[in-house]
Amino acid sequence: MTGRNEQWRIDLRAKIKAKERTNTIRVKMPELDPVYRGKVRDEEVNLGLTAELAMQEAQRCLDCAKPTCMEGCPVSISIPDFIKRIEVGEFLEAAKVLKRTSALPAVCGRVCPQERQCEAHCIHLKMKKEPVAIGHLERFVADYERESGQISVPEVQPPNGIKIAVVGSGPAGLSFAGDMVKMGYEVHVFEALHEIGGVLKYGIPEFRLPNDVVDVEIDNLRAMGVKFFKNTIIGKTITIKELEEADFKGIFVASGAGLPRFMNIKGENLVGIMSSNEYLTRVNLMDAASDDSDTPVYKGKKVAVIGGGNTAMDSIRTALRLGAEKAMIVYRRTEKEMPARAEEVKHAKEEGIEFLMLHNPIEYIGDEFGRVTHMVLQAMELGEPDASGRRSPIPIEGKTRTVEVDEVIVSIGVSPNPLIAQSTPQLETTKWGTLVVNQETMQSSSMPKVFAGGDIVRGGATVILAMGDGRRAAKSMDEWIRGKS
Amino acid sequence: MNKILSKEYFSEKVVKFVVEAPQIAKARRAGHFVMVRVGKKGERIPLTIADADVERGTITLVVQRTGVSSSKLCALELGDYITDLVGPLGQATRVENFGTVVCACGGVGTAPMLPIVTAMKKAGNKVITVLAARTKDLVILEEQMRENSDEIIVMTDDGSYGTKGLVTDGLETVLKREKVDLCMTIGPAIMMKFVSLLTKKYNVPTIASLNTIMVDGTGMCGACRVTVGGKTKFVCVDGPEFDAHQVDFDEMLMRLGGYREQEREAMERSSSKS
Lengths: 485, 274
Ligand SMILES: Cc1cc2nc3c(=O)[nH]c(=O)nc-3n(C[C@H](O)[C@H](O)[C@H](O)COP(=O)(O)OP(=O)(O)OC[C@H]3O[C@@H](n4cnc5c(N)ncnc54)[C@H](O)[C@@H]3O)c2cc1C
Ligand code: FES
Known about the structure:
The complex is a heterodimer.
Chain A: H1 7-15, H2 18-23, H3 34-37, H4 51-60, H5 68-72, H6 79-87, H7 91-101, H8 105-111, H9 123-126, H10 134-148, E1 163-167, H11 171-182, E2 186-190, H12 199-202, H13 211-224, E3 227-229, H14 240-245, E4 248-253, E5 259-260, E6 273-275, H15 276-285, E7 302-306, H16 310-321, E8 326-330, H17 342-350, E9 354-356, E10 359-366, E11 372-385, E12 391-404, E13 407-410, E14 414-415, H18 419-423, E15 450-452, H19 455-458, H20 463-484
Helix pairs in contact in A: 4-6, 6-7, 6-10, 7-10, 8-10, 11-20, 15-16
Chain B: E1 2-11, E2 14-20, H1 22-27, E3 33-37, E4 44-53, E5 58-64, H2 68-74, E6 81-82, E7 84-89, E8 100-106, H3 110-122, E9 126-133, H4 142-148, E10 151-156, E11 163-164, H5 167-177, E12 182-186, H6 189-201, E13 206-209, E14 225-228, E15 231-234, H7 235-238, E16 241-243, H8 249-256, H9 260-273
Parallel strand pairs in B: 8-9, 8-12, 9-10, 10-11, 12-13
Antiparallel strand pairs in B: 1-2, 1-6, 2-5, 3-4, 3-7, 4-5, 13-16, 14-15
Helix pairs in contact in B: 5-6, 6-8
Residues 111-112, 167-173, 190-193, 198-199, 203-204, 233-235, 254-256, 258, 280, 310-311, 314, 341, 417, 419-420, 454-456, 461-464, 466 of chain A line the site of flavin-adenine dinucleotide (FAD).
């Protein structure tokens, strides 16, 4: 199926001159009007490319002999292969190419930091042009396939009777489950929460990643035979040891990095201050902003989010949609260092989010009811680059300011969920609480039956890396199991 | 989905459910709790596991009707299903033979105290239970407590039953009278605060089981955080039981008040519907 040397590809390349391709301007993703979208909670901001726009954008790709974009992709998707099929209008074929390497293309097309991965390596950049919109195209193809109703359910090998357990149903767990079920394993996925999907469900909001998109993937896995068990906490409801005793031949731990970090500064436990996990869980998992939901959520008028990652952007844009009149991001470095996707920052700005850079909270002040009313911010400046090459922020002595707030969302990162490590002392962990695995095989260094991947191994990382881990773990677990028998 | 196998009223406002949950029954210890959700729009609420039967694969929950979510649960009937039930969560109670243990409880803390009273008695302790309520009609679980305690002291605020006075009055009688090795307390935060102040005066080690606001109950959100010994702890994973003398009850009280407005609105909404 691959092959830049197939005749149709050669002909296609010859059809339009490279110069003409590079001179075409990059498509603009059609999106909801910023004023309108700031008021609606559930509508996705990006509307998706039309078939015409997608085919036009696909033309921009030069079908390079050495596609550097693929080097930027953590799972090495055959990028020109799928883009060229878009150019000729073979969208379902393009979807098949994506699915060879990506278990969740509709998700990754929406949430991957393309500007730092595939698109950062696009040949166009060398010519001072904008890169091909690979992410938009990926999303287009995945959406097209889903909406066509002609989703190809991958071929599943006949059952081999071997039981495999998966802990957690985020992108790592889901992609692992998909690959294993295809190989004929009996896959049981255990999820602590009452919803399947991990961060894709409880974290990332509807306006960025609609639940329907995720549900289709989950339904697909069900159709392939994956069994899901909600409300089951491994380490609490069932231990790893009990799974072994119940004849699970392999266990893939993909429990994510669910533990919110706080700064441990004065006043941080005041009413109205919470982690982004709490805020987003209330709104996304519990639907707390709807009138008919029993779960409450604050609808602050002056909201500050501390942090500069995707979670921070999701939180502040949610607050705006819940009626905040003033919504600001407070970040201790500058915009350049913010880990959030470029598109999220752009969208946030269009929606009127304020960006207060080079500031860090050092104290919160509350009223007589213990409700937060102000935050005291320390002004920062960037110092010399540290070992990691990042310039670390240092406080400017004596320079602080006090800002009025009625809600603060702390979004400074997460740590691995300790439940499994605590209940399974044999499992080797790092001092950060991540599980130690062989980086190639994802097999645990201390318990050979256990494999792990995603945020539980990497700390807070990305969807695509989690998915890649899941796929690698599936491959190596299969080899390991077959090697033993 | 977990099936309700029996429903029994302890009083108009207190219901005992036996629920099918074989895995939880097997894994649970005294002091553990579950998170329960009723209906697709339901809230996740923590409930102490009052008892479990491994053979039958069931757990017992004692639910006191206080707000929207506990009312929804109490409205379920025999044969109905609880939408979501997950656990066992939290750290188990340290149960051993301490000597003399006083269990001081009141209001919402009465139901979750029952399994602790039972476990402490079983471990060979002399158990004295101080059971407090505002008025006679609100005294619950007296029989069950009596069965498992060496002595029970019932206190009512208005003196309509038992002895007139607060839980602390009953507790102080005991503290004055004999050597107590451990005090366990569960109830409204304000009550636990005063119990803690009192036992501190008498130098009696005290464990409080905290009932903070929770969302997930698995350590994921921090809604349940409290300050214990100057450090932030998550009640759902580090607790729910802590050294009462180290707990910042004032902060806890303040945080509990956080959603009061929204809760009142929710109550009004749901009562105007029915
Ligand atoms: C708000 C937010 C926005 C983000 N935005 C982006 C983005 O735009 N792009 C991007 O690439 N990445 C983003 N990320 C990061 C990305 O979501 C994560 O890196 C990814 O989801 C990790 O996948 P995972 O499968 O390892 O874990 P998770 O998605 O965290 O899933 C783990 C699952 O395991 C369950 N679990 C935990 N412990 C147990 C247990 N003991 N037993 C059973 N189940 C358990 C959890 O409940 C959870 O459902 C974002 C994260 C957040 C929070
Ligand atoms: S309830 Fe969410 S962390 Fe405890």
